[in-house]
Amino acid sequence: MKSRLLICYAGWLLSSCATGRPVPADYKKDVLLRTNYGDMVLRLSDETPLHRDNFIKLVKRRYYKDVLFHRVIQYFMIQSGDPDSRKAPGGKPLGEGGPGYTVPAEFRAGLFHRKGALAAAREGDDVNPLKASSGSQFYIVQGKVWTNGGLDTLEVKRLNGRKIPAAYRQVYTTVGGTPHLDQNYTVFGQLIKGYEVLDQIAAVPTSKAKDRDRPIRNVRILKTKMVKR
Question: By three-state DSSP, how is residue 160 classified?
Fold first, then answer.
């Protein structure tokens, strides 16, 4: 989901540069997500400071320890962050839990749903017209590689004529992703290590019944921590 080292990290770091205050050490670190399928490393975007800071806060509080990837759809995404999943019995529908608050949407033109994008889950537009993000639930995009023809059809049938930028198209037709989610869910980071783990988790067998694509065998976050870049 995009380092911006050369532009003084926009926003928060500009204020730091102006005041002379040191940059907090956590903003120079990545997030290790250790699962029972292996390790993934996520880099948070400084263009989405509300989501960045919230995620760092939860990681440092060990909020995600023992939480499941409760919704997995191959060639789409893997979703986690529901605290109710820690002790949920098999077959129980999940996806409603959280810390009791939301995070305002932070849509940025340079952050889109390429493979490996880290993004925030949220409730639907009918109850959430401002597209505010869940306080804790997130997903990592697996997606698929598109053809230009497929993207053309997507623009007409799902995007109501909205054009996919050329730079996005180049990525979606080579690396892959889920373009119909752009500007609807906040992307706030990018997977930088562990793509093989992402693909393994996305391929686990799931139930298609009322428990909403929950893996039949639990996929669990064992540990999260801030790590040096």
Answer: coil
Q: How would you classify residue 73: left for phi > 0, otherwise alpha for psi between -120 and 50, otherwise beta?
A: beta
Model confidence over 103-143: pLDDT tens digits? 999 999 999 999 999 999 999 999 999 999 999 999 999 99
Give the alpha-carbon dihedral of 113, 65, 101, 229, to 10 degrees.
-50
Share of the chain above pLDDT 90, in %: 83
Q: Which residues contact 45 (CB under 8 A, 6 or more apart)?
A: 1, 2, 4, 51, 52, 108, 111, 187, 188, 189, 190
CA atoms of 39 and 34, how far apart (whole Å): 4
Q: 3-state SS of the chain: helix, strand, coil percent to 5?
A: 25, 25, 50
